[in-house]
Amino acid sequence: MPLPPFDPADPLGIDDLLEPEDLAVRDTVRRWAADRVLPHVAEWYESGELPVIRELARELGGIGALGMSLSGYGCAGATAVQYGLACLELEAADSGIRSLVSVQGSLAMYAIHRYGSEEQKQSWLPRMASGEVIGCFGLTEPDIGSDPAAMRTYAKRDGGDWVLTGRKMWITNGSVAGVAVVWAQTEDGIRGFVVPTDSPGFAAPEIKHKMSLRASVTSELVMDEVRLSADAVLPGVTGLRGPLSCLSHARYGIVWGSMGAARSCFETAVDYAKSREQFGRPIGGFQLTQAKLADMAVELHKGILLAHHLGRRMDAGRLRPEQVSFGKLNNVREAIDICRTARTILGANGISLEYPIMRHATNLESVLTYEGTVEMHQLVLGKALTGLDAFR
């Protein structure tokens, strides 16, 4: 039997590992991103605004991309691999678009789906799955990042109600959200609260002057004695296990998504190297450029293989948080290196918004930090490898 031809777009034949349903999901999201995001994203990035976020959310709900790995309540019930493929295609367009989907599905919806009451699920999840309601997830605070146990936001009982006070920072979707899942200290430990954003005392001013994730809505959450009914608390979890499990689910999407940004930069570099001529021939014909392209391809497709492996483990119920840390640490770090190398191939053109490379590179600087910094994931793995806790 003759060998199949070498495919520069899939040099390891990873597509052979995908089922027809997986490919259909990937192609649907890729077509949507090509039609609705790529023609406009440079303009959104340059202006620092995402003016059509509500429209995009409804469209994403229409193709089943919001909360897609959850079951019931209008969610698609997709596999982890299918969700990962969607994240890859969304981030190949822009990290801000993938963040919109990740925060909606893997943080806000996941928290309600896993830990919420049946009434909370029925009330919020169908509208969030359709994109009618956008959600956000409030954990990080102005002075509290990697140590969420030290959060200062608190909720106290007042008769049959809860009164919530505090601030959250760097919250994706915050200013456009209809519901916020907010984590707070209580006399019983850290609890999650489902907070309608039209509640008196709740405000979500948008954060401006960002140099990364500019095609994304990022906000502060300010809660000044927000009164909530007794049933606003998520009944299914107490302690940091709740928010950390949500973050692990979202980090899994980043393992795939970061490879989307890397793929966009790699493909741009390959196309440019084949057409840009210097010294009388395309720069892709020079050894140093080919060495760069070869190294980029190796790390890109190793990263996709890693993401696929973790997805299969998640689908089998065998994915550990330490393995997610492994994936996020490796793939985001390698994606940044691929972007920087691609920029060198384009030379000065690499900093222009006519090409996606600098946009992806600056976005990935945020992806590197959010949902666990490099250092935190190194320490997670260090503890797993040695049995010794070096966090404190």
UniProtKB/TrEMBL annotation:
Keyword Acyltransferase on entry: no
**Is the Cytoplasm keyword given for this protein?**
no
Acyl-CoA dehydrogenase/oxidase N-terminal domain boundaries: 20-132
Protein origin, superkingdom? Bacteria
> E.C. number, please?
1.3.8.6
Instruction: Give the Pfam families listed for this entry.
Output: Acyl-CoA_dh_1 (PF00441), Acyl-CoA_dh_M (PF02770), Acyl-CoA_dh_N (PF02771)
Residue ranges annotated for the Acyl-CoA oxidase/dehydrogenase middle domain, each copy included? 136-226
Instruction: Name all Acyl-CoA dehydrogenase/oxidase C-terminal domain ranges.
Output: 239-385
One GO biological process term: fatty-acyl-CoA biosynthetic process
List, in alphabetical order, the Gene Ontology terms for molecular function in this entry. Answer: fatty-acyl-CoA binding; flavin adenine dinucleotide binding; glutaryl-CoA dehydrogenase activity
Record family assignment: Belongs to the acyl-CoA dehydrogenase family.
Q: Which PANTHER family match?
A: GLUTARYL-COA DEHYDROGENASE, MITOCHONDRIAL (PTHR42807:SF1)
Name by which UniProt lists this protein: Glutaryl-CoA dehydrogenase
Taxonomic lineage from the root: Bacteria, Bacillati, Actinomycetota, Actinomycetes, Kitasatosporales
